[in-house]
Amino acid sequence: MRGSADRPIMGAMSLAAQIIDQRVSGIIEKLSDIFTDELGLGPDEQKRRAMAFLFLAAKTAFDLTDEQTIDGIVDGADDFGIDAVYFEPPDDGELHITLIQGKYKRKLGGDSAFPENGIAGMIDAIGALFDPAQPVQLNRRLNERIEDIRSFVKDGAIPRVTAVAANNGVRWTVQAQQRIDSAAREFGQQVEWRHIGADEILALLQARKPIDADLKLTGAATVETFDFRRVLTGRMSVAELARLTDTYDNRLFERNIRRYLGLAGNRVNEAVAATLRETDQRSNFYFYNNGITITCSQFRHNALQREDWSVQVSDLQIVNGGQTARTVQHVAREVGSQIGDAEVLVRLYELEQNDAELVEAITFATNSQNSVDLRDLKANDARQKALGHSISELGYTYRAKREDRPVSSDEFTSAVIAEAVLAIWRRRPHQARFRSREHFGALYSTIFSADLNGAQAVIAALLHRHAENHRKRRPEDAPDFLAYGSRFIAMLMGRYLLNEMGISLGGLDHRNLGDARELVRQKSDDYLARAEAQIGNALDPLFTGRERTLQRLSATFRRADLVETLLETVQA
User: Fold this and answer.
1) Residue 15: strand, helix, or coil
2) 305-361 pLDDT, tens per residue?
3) Would the CA dihedral through 327, 330, 333, 334 be positive or negative?
4) Which residues neighbour 310 within 8 Å (Cβ) at sequence distance 6 or greater?
């Protein structure tokens, strides 16, 4: 139920704001040292609460790890109205960027709108930050990330920006929306705006109840049995899909490993939307779209009815087609009942509730043509299980699946192991940083080869941790390339360690892990300083006669020839 002027009823919003405030208090306690050491926050309580809220909003809305969330925070002096920046390397020539500005009020009434001047500041930032030739005065953290982005833009990548206004109140005002509409004439389809409030954050945090729903199909459908599992194939109107998405929202997509990218900046979604908007193309939507894949624990229908079934579905989840569902929902709000002319293919799999591996396999198979996070789906792979067992035998814990809890000093995630092994032992530090989406995809066999043992994984992770901690807690005299070169530093540290042990990588195993670990403990700082010096010497000739900017440094650390130059002087 909504209040007047489309504002939430105060009691419900106030409760959400209070729950979020409790979460904020917990984050301050949990991340107190990180707020001080990495983000340079002082003791001011209100600033810490604002930072904790920003952390909560970013992590929850975009499904980030603690480390990823902290890395993207750039709040501080000269932040251009931007508090956090997240981006991924270009995909098909497009660079997807998320900018967040957070506003947090101690008053928990929940009725404060996101301020108009905050929106105006973000508009100014978007207009300035992504032009590689335009000078801007920024704080160090923001400057390093923006020059990283600008180096991709200079190489021809097209920036696609999602601007997020996050607060513990309500959406921005009508006047702020007018500013956004005016800016759209300049930015075109390259910028999408979103609001994240206490209600949205709470909805994402809350435990989901199973979805039991009725699906209204159109025309004839078929039901077949494979290996004691039933499969229904049919079609439904996109209006029915929009109704389903409106009713259950994010609960529909808990098992879907892809995020909704939005309409702006995603050509697939834009094409889906365009088909639905064009009256002469709408009826062909069924033929243009791959359809929706749904899993459930049970479905029932009237088998005596020849067509137009109403199917009762228990524990419904959309595991592929979330992008389509969200885009259909968006366009349905624009065109209304006319959208009912379009239909979409539906595949409904009835699976046992404890058949988690098959659900994961279906999710993987139906998403494999798209950009996905495959880490969780690889957790049951034989290589992951064997590596986890090897690491546990050495006294460490291997976390193959994502979990929302801190990582202890004797614990390593599969994501960290993948990045560390690729950078250090596979000598591909540039791919470790810029091709993270492929670590459990195209690069999986390279990283997790059959000869990778637990000792090699542990030492790589320890070296990687040391280099990354140095980057995050950088000293005053740190070199200018540290923000982009920490994986290169880790690679060289690994070379130095093997040389000092007098072995090749194949000689590192459980028998000499203790010796290797002691070298890491005693000499990591020496290795790191030596690596920084070697990289500095390798960079000097590259910038003879031209300015050494962060933008150029970022581009340099994406090149494989720098790896070759560094390794020519380090034999192992």
Assistant:
1) helix
2) 989 999 999 988 888 888 888 888 888 888 877 777 789 999 999 987 555 555 555
3) negative
4) 214, 215, 216, 217, 301, 302
- In this prediction, the residues of the chain whose per-residue pLDDT falls under 70 are 1-14, 206-209, 227, 254-269, 353-377, 404, 570-572
Residue 572 falls within a domain, yes or no? Answer: no
Q: Which of 171, 188, 205 is the last residue of a domain?
A: 205
Count of domains for the chain: 3
For residue 426, is it within any domain? yes
Question: Do 279 and 130 share a domain, yes or no?
Answer: no
C-alpha angle 285/286/289, rounded to 5°? 75
| 3 state SS of 147 | helix
Regarding whether 561 and 527 lie in a shared domain, the answer is yes
Q: Which domain holds residue 475?
A: 376-567
Global confidence as pTM = 0.75
Question: Is there a contact between 497 and 463 (Cβ–Cβ < 8 Å)?
Answer: yes
Is 286 buried (19+), middle (13-18) or exposed (0-12) by CB count in 10 A?
middle
Query: Are residue 270 and residue 296 in the same domain, yes or no?
Result: yes
The answer to whether the CB of 423 falls within 8 A of the CB of 491 is yes
Per the listing, tokens 């569902």 go with 325
